[in-house]
Design the sequence.
């Protein structure tokens, strides 16, 4: 499978050799400009999010307070760190449309004209999938994991949840699932560049299942198999959604359409 993917990637790069190229210095200059704008948008988003940091904090700690527990701190700066981390994540979400547009501007020189029309669907789908993954983690996975770990395995003990530990746990679940929900976007680009197609993805779906459960085991903050399945099952659904995406955007399908039009 790995060898076949490498061969397909080489073929995709070879097919794009006729696109107008940029020198190494031009690539670095373009990268510098995009990173400058991304950092600016992220900073602005964090400032706006910090204005509402108390309200954001209430959303962060709600899964704990719903269980009748309270967060504790062991260091004087823990409260400030929680507000800063919450503002950083909130700011990144607010700035995500602008950040994604800068990423698109960076990769667009390596794309054909007909491929660039996917910019708005790409941005909307990326943001929508990330927010869906974050909501799924916040609504189902995080409360379920806390109930299992704190009220289940830890019921014989007195729980003392620190701000620092809970924040890391919270971000691992929310950001982990948000990123995992971007799987169709990854497949979209691989198919758009001709590296994979629907037939290839279906042929090797057993390896995909193994990889998905491996990723779920790594990012899942709970050792419980049920929690790991809560991470893996949405990714399996998204994988087969990606198969459908690959079928529609692969270059071979476009070439067949053009051939049919030419025959008519």
Sequence:
């Amino acid at each position: 499978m790995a060898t076949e993917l490498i061969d397909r990637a080489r073929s995709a790069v070879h097919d794009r050799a006729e696109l107008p190229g940029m020198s190494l210095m031009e690539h670095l200059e373009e990268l510098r400009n995009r990173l400058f704008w991304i950092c600016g948008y992220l900073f602005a988003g964090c400032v706006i999010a910090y204005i509402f940091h108390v309200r954001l904090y209430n959303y962060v700690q709600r899964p704990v307070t719903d269980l009748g527990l309270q967060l504790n701190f062991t260091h004087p700066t823990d409260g400030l760190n929680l507000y800063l981390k919450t503002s950083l994540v909130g700011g990144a979400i607010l700035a995500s449309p602008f950040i994604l547009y800068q990423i698109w501007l960076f990769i667009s020189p390596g794309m054909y004209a007909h491929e660039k029309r996917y910019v708005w669907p790409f941005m909307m789908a990326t943001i929508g999938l990330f927010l869906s993954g974050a909501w799924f983690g916040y609504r189902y996975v995080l409360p379920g994991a806390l109930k299992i770990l704190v009220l289940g395995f830890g019921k014989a003990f007195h729980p003392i949840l620190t701000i620092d530990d809970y924040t890391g746990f919270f971000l691992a679940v929310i950001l982990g699932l948000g990123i995992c929900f971007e799987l169709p976007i990854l497949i979209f680009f691989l198919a758009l560049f001709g590296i994979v197609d629907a037939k290839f993805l279906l042929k090797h779906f057993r390896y995909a299942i193994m990889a998905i459960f491996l990723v779920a085991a790594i990012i899942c903050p709970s050792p419980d198999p049920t929690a790991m399945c809560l991470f893996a099952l949405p990714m399996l659904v998204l994988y087969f959604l990606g198969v459908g995406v690959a079928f529609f955007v692969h270059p071979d399908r476009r070439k067949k359409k053009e051939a049919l039009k030419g025959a008519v």
Q: What stands out?
A: DSSP finds eleven helices and two strands in the chain.
